[in-house]
Design goal:
190 residues; alpha+beta; eight-stranded antiparallel beta sheet; four-stranded antiparallel beta sheet; 3 helices; 12 strands; 27% strand
Length: 190
């Protein structure tokens, strides 16, 4: 038989924290969350992504002056059609943004009509603003040297690019443009 004292449930009253302590804890948790977020963003943009701004009109109608981009060079290998940010301090004061037209070992030709051919095949370029002129730097056709790329702006007749300065060393690539985040009305993946 169970005694009456043993069958009774004992209740312990838990002391409620005062409002002052609870507010301090909430503020601390908020600050801690903000610090963690800032650390993650800093690490992400230091090692994986960078930001770049478009200056000039050489990429119209794909990119416009003052567009802001996120670029990545994580495991990046240039491919035809990629939009890349390049740093070529011996030629340009600031980083430039251009499109990769041909990579090492590919033969590039520009005919008198302004059509661009890679390895004998005319490339489809719906992004260009106007027909391509040859300019004077290169004699066409020619093969892109090893470790280099041939770049051009989409606004072909308003672009200083490989037709002027020759092929660009892949070491000058800062990264591939992957996302436009400003202006908001043109936000999106590139």
């Amino acid at each position: 038989m169970v005694k009456a004292n043993e069958s009774r449930i004992k209740y312990k009253y838990i002391k409620q924290p005062d409002k002052k302590t609870s507010l301090k804890r909430e503020v601390f948790d908020l600050v801690e969350m903000i610090v963690y977020a800032l650390v993650i963003v800093t690490i992400t943009f230091t090692f994986f992504f960078k930001m770049a701004g478009v200056q000039g009109e050489s990429m119209i109608y794909t990119l416009y002056n003052q567009d802001r981009l996120i670029i990545s060079n994580l495991f990046y290998e240039p491919k035809n059609g990629d939009i890349v940010v390049l740093s070529i301090p011996e030629i340009f004061d600031k980083p430039i943004i251009k499109r990769v037209i041909a990579t090492e070992g590919q033969t590039i030709n520009i005919n008198d009509k302004g059509d661009v051919y890679i390895d004998g095949v005319k490339i489809d370029e719906p992004y260009i603003h106007n027909k391509t002129n040859k300019k004077l730097h290169n004699k066409y056709p020619f093969v892109v040297p090893q470790g280099h790329i041939f770049i051009m702006g989409d606004n072909r007749n308003n672009s200083k690019d490989s037709r002027d300065v020759g092929c660009v060393n892949v070491k000058n690539i800062m990264g591939k443009a992957v996302f436009r985040f400003l202006p908001f009305n043109r936000i999106g993946v590139l």
